[in-house]
Amino acid sequence: MGAVLSEYGLFRILGFRSPEMIVKLNGQSRDVPADTTLSDLLSELRILPERVAVELNFNIIDRDSLQRVRLKEGDSIEIIGFVGGGSC
Prior knowledge:
This protein has helices at about 5-15, 40-45, and strands at about 20-25, 30-35, 50-55, 60, 75-80. It is α+β, with helices and mostly antiparallel strands. It has one domain (about 5-80): Beta-grasp domain (Ubiquitin-like (UB roll)).
């Protein structure tokens, strides 16, 4: 499956800034460019999708959908990292 380049990704490659919107990321307000996908956000944060679970507005998002799901003004995103542990 080929990579999908969102408008946000194209703006970054060309050195332009797109209009911004505010979302909540792990409880904190954050400005993100309009048309940002969850995949774009993880990339910007340098987070590997394989290492986290992503919740958008109280719904877990399937990893295969991260490139298709576009953020909207006011969205609430939780990124939960996996933690390995020792024995009990």
